[in-house]
Amino acid sequence: MPDQTSRSPSPAASPGLLDLDDLNALAQAGEIDTVMLGVPDMMGRLKGKNLDALHFLSQLPAGPQMCGYVLASDVDMTPLPGYELTGWHDGYGDLRVIPDLDTIRRLSYLPGTVLVHGDAARPGGKPVQVAPRQILRRQLEALAAHGLEARVGIESEFVLYKGTETRVRRAGYRGLRPVAFDNLDYALDRPPAVSSFFHRLQYALRQAGTPVEAVKTEGAPGQIEVTWPYGDPLRACDAYTVHQHAVRHIAARHRMTATFMAAPQTGIGSGLHLHLSLWHKGEPAFDLRPDEDLPDLLQHSIAGLISAMPHLVPLYAPTTNSFARYMPRSFAPTNYTWGRDNRTCAVRLLGHHEQTHLEVRLPGADANPYLALSATIAAITHGLTDQPKLPEPCTGDAYEAVDPLGVPRSLEEARTDFAESRIALHAFGAPVVAHYSRAAEVEIEAQRGKVTDIDRERGFLRA
Questions:
Q1: N or C: which end of the chain has fewer CB within 10 A?
Q2: Which helix (H) or strand (E) holds 418?
Q3: pTM for this entry
Q4: CB-based burial of residue 331 (10 Å sphere; 0-12 exposed, 13-18 middle, 19+ buried)?
Q5: pLDDT tens across 338-381, in order?
Q6: Dihedrals φ, ψ of 78, to 5°?
Q7: pLDDT, tens digit, for every residue of 98-131?
Q8: For helices 369-386 and 296-308, what crossing angle results, to 10°?
Q9: Residue 188: how many CB atoms within 10 A of its CB?
């Protein structure tokens, strides 16, 4: 669980982050020769270009151009119709990538390279409304209109398997061998290969200005959990994309393969839990006192999450596989409930006084952090504005609760609700809702009519 009391330093003060003068000096000295400029795509993956460092510096403040389809395609980067942003109808034109110069960070696993996050903009400089970073900015602005800011700590789960990506792919993703067996949750006697991976990952993230709070083995074989201290929401999501990039590179160096699927195997679920608190003028705004009723702001926030999150599902459960994670006794929620320190609920209330915060357990590991957090902030803002009634907390096993609304059973069900939701349209606007409704539709179409291993197992000799 992220450290709620941590104060987020300014980007320039964060160890591992460089300012523009640092980058210029290192580039002139030949110590840095490559700038990797990346834009988070709809899945949260960094897409971009490797630029010569001196050329990058000479082009500032403008950045390079990039085909707009990086924000309008599927997981395989397939050019697809149905997106207003770009497509065959306009010849797949370019977007401009504006570097965010507060995100210059060295990558220890790629010598001579820095990573810079960028923002997609129209040729005239107008931000692209459907870009994940821009969506999150707009939700933070809506929250700021209430005089509030959010602080966020992310908790990432993923699974490591033995063998290179090439080997895993050639095996058809069958016969997967986790890097550790049994339930090693909280174990300190880990296999040497896992401990080595931990050390390299922690070092890489510290050098990149995104030091972790903790790394541990989780409950499923080969499952890893990484958490970060509380900080600025946009920077927290940026750090997560750096983490994913580092995990994949370091795993490859260890002849391992990492997956951020929500449910890579039957009975295994990986989450992307969001720990969040609200602050007003630098002071904690939740401030729950022992043996007292919940403050109004905290009540409205929880009520907003319970009321609005059911209508925003494609933003935190974006694939058909996402829904295989929502199973009873899985530690993933199956209904929209809340409770105090209750891991069976969708929203978990934790701490007292300035450490009071909420853990939103709905997003899976396959979620785009910017979008999942945008949905969470939008739901809280809905609670502050519309003030829906707060349901009673769940004090026992939320999997047994019969009254709360259940998590959708499929992406198709979730997409229909999202596309028609008044809450979604009010929070995000019609262009964003249409864009991500189309993304969900693409995922559904990719699975429709496909024969699976389970189909053959149940029907090959029995039909």
A1: C
A2: helix 411-420
A3: 0.95
A4: middle
A5: 999 999 999 999 988 888 999 999 999 999 999 999 999 999 99
A6: -85, 125
A7: 999 999 999 999 999 999 999 999 988 899 999 9
A8: 120
A9: 8
CA distance 61 to 286: 40
The pair of three-digit structure tokens given for residue 402, joined into one six-digit string: 């019969």
| Rounded mean pLDDT, 155-160 | 97
347-350/338-340 β-pairing = parallel
pLDDT value at position 13? 44
Pairing relationship of beta strands 65-67 and 94-99 according to DSSP bridges? antiparallel
In whole angstroms, give the CA distance from residue 235 to residue 40: 13
* Largest separation between any pair of C-alpha atoms in the chain: 70
Q: Which two tokens stand for residue 127?
A: 């931000």
Measure the CA–CA gap between 93 and 99, rounded to whole angstroms: 19
Q: Output 284-290 pairs: Cβ under 8 A, ≥24 positions apart.
A: 284/353, 284/354, 284/356, 285/148, 286/356, 286/357, 287/353, 287/354, 287/356, 288/349, 288/351, 288/352, 288/353, 288/356, 289/352, 289/353, 290/352
Q: How far apart are CA 403 and CA 401, in angstroms?
A: 6
Q: Rounded to whole angstroms, how far apart are CA atoms 455 and 63?
A: 49
